[in-house]
TrEMBL record, chains A, B:
CDD domains according to UniProt: NUDIX_NadM_like
Stored Pfam families: NUDIX, WHD_NrtR
This protein's name: NUDIX hydrolase
Alphabetical UniProt keywords: Hydrolase
Organism this protein belongs to: Roseibacillus persicicus
DNA sequence: ACAAAAGTGTTGATCATACACCCATGA
DNA sequence: TCATGGGTGTATGATCAACACTTTTGT
C-alpha cells in the first residue's frame, strides 16, 4: 500500500521548554504571528521537513523561534487528534526541554515571534491543544525526576543543596526533609563537592556542588537504582 | 508558515504485539506482501489516513492485518529517521499491545498477509528499523511492568499465582522468591481470589485469581504505590 | 507411595522517616 | 548581637530478602 493512495496528515514538532528561577517553574512560549491563533501564545514548534529528523526539527524550530540551542531535549508523546488544528489534520511530535534559566534570561532571542517565560501555574490561554501537551509534559517531568537525575539541567553548573532540594520540592510539589534529602543525595555519589561557596548572601554561605555526570553514567550502567 | 511550503514526510503507525505462552514471550509479525522488504517479516502497521486518529489507525491496521481487536494498546515512541524507509521519509508512531495468547492462537487471522507469533528471543531479520522498535518496546514493557499492573493483559482472565510469577520472571528476566512474591502481590489487594482451581494438572491444583481492576483504579486514584 | 507443584512465617538487615540544635556569616 | 539559612545524627518503624518444610493431588 503506497503512501500516496491516501492524503497525508501534516507533521509538526512542538517543544515544552521548562525553566526554573527563584519564584517558579516556568515555560517558554511564543506569540504566534500567523493565523490560526494569530496573537495567541503557543509552544515553539513547526512543520517537519521532508528528510529532516524529528529531534533535529524540534531543535531547529526552537533555535529559530527562541534562540535556544544545545539543551536537554527528549521526546514526550505524539498528539494526533484530527481536529487539534482547525485547518487540517496536523500530527505533532511533542518534545520537552530543560534549561538553566539563569543562563537564558526571561525574554529570549527571537527569530520572528515574541517569546517569553510564563510561570507554569499562571499560563495564558494557549493555541491548539497546547495546554494538554503542557499538562502531559508537566506530568512527565514530575515522574521522570523521581528516578532520573534530570533536575540538574534546570540548575547552573554549580549549585547548593538547598537549591537542589527546592527544585525537587517545587517539581514534585511536596515538602522534603532537609537532612534526609541531603543524606539520600550524597549517598548516591553523583554529586561532586566543589571548594567554592555561594557568594553575596546575608548569612552563612552554602557549599557549591556539581553534578558528576560520569559517576552517574557508571552507576546507571551498573544498574543501580537512582531514585530520589 | 503553512504546511504546504515544504514536502511532508509520510506518517504510519506500527504495532508491537506481545503475547505470552508456556514457553516464551512472543511477538506477532506479518510477512510483507509488497515492496519494499517484500517477503520479509515486519511489524503490523500502515499509513495513517488524513482525518484519522493515531490510535485508531494503529487499531485499524492491527485488525486488518492480524484480526486482533479490543486489546490493550499504548503509544510507545515516534521514530522518524529520514532513512528508516528506503523509499522516502516515513515517520512512524509506534504502539505496543498486550494480548492473552491463549485466546489468540499461534497463527492469527489475516487480511492480506501472513501473520505469525515469534519468540522474542528468536526473531527473524525484520524490515525497516523494526528491530529497533521491538527492542524499545521490550524495554518499555519491562520498565512499565515494575510499577504498573499491565501483566494481567497477557494472562487469561483467571490465573494462578505461579503463572503470574512466571510472567514477571520472564519479562523482568530475573528470578523471584515465591513467598515474597505472593506476600507482595496479595498485600496490594488488587487480586480477587476466585473459588475455582486449575484443572487437569497432575499435582495439587492451584487456586485461580482474577485481577480486580476496580480496586486497582481506586488505589491508583488514592496515589498508592503499586510497584512490584 | 511417589512425583510434582501448592502453599505458608520468621528473622535479620536495610531503608525511610521524624525530628532539633549549633554554626557561620553578613548586616 | 541579631537574623538568616547552613549543616549535622539518632532512634523508631517499615520494608525487603533470605530461607525449607508440609500439604494436596494425580498417577
Amino acid at each position: 500500500m503506497p503512501s500516496y493512495e491516501y492524503a497525508r496528515p501534516a507533521l509538526t514538532t512542538d517543544c515544552v521548554v521548562f525553566g526554573l528561577d527563584e519564584e517558579d517553574l516556568k515555560v517558554l512560549l511564543i506569540k504566534r504571528g500567523l493565523t490560526p491563533f494569530k496573537g495567541k501564545w503557543a509552544l515553539p514548534g513547526g512543520f517537519v521537513r521532508e528528510g529532516e529528523d524529528l529531534e533535529k526539527s524540534a531543535r531547529r524550530e526552537l533555535q529559530e523561534e527562541t534562540g535556544l540551542k544545545d539543551i536537554f531535549l527528549e521526546q514526550l508523546y505524539t498528539f494526533g487528534h484530527p481536529k487539534r488544528d482547525p485547518r487540517e489534520h496536523v500530527v505533532t511530535v511533542a518534545y520537552y526541554a530543560l534549561v538553566n534559566l539563569s543562563e537564558h534570561p526571561p525574554t529570549a532571542d527571537t527569530d520572528a515571534d515574541e517569546a517569553a517565560w510564563f510561570p507554569f501555574d499562571d499560563l495564558p490561554k494557549l493555541a491548539f491543544d497546547h495546554s494538554e501537551i503542557l499538562a502531559s509534559a508537566r506530568e512527565r517531568l514530575r515522574s521522570k525526576l523521581r528516578y532520573s537525575p534530570i533536575g540538574f539541567e534546570l540548575l547552573p553548573e554549580k549549585f547548593t543543596l538547598t537549591q537542589l532540594q527546592s527544585l525537587y520540592e517545587r517539581i514534585l510539589d511536596e515538602q522534603l526533609d532537609k537532612r534526609n534529602f541531603r543524606k539520600k543525595l550524597l549517598k548516591l555519589e553523583i554529586l561532586e563537592e566543589t571548594d567554592e561557596i555561594e557568594q553575596d548572601v546575608a548569612h552563612r554561605a552554602a557549599r557549591l556542588y556539581r553534578f558528576d555526570r560520569k559517576a552517574y553514567l557508571e552507576k546507571q550502567e551498573a544498574g543501580l537504582n537512582l531514585e530520589i
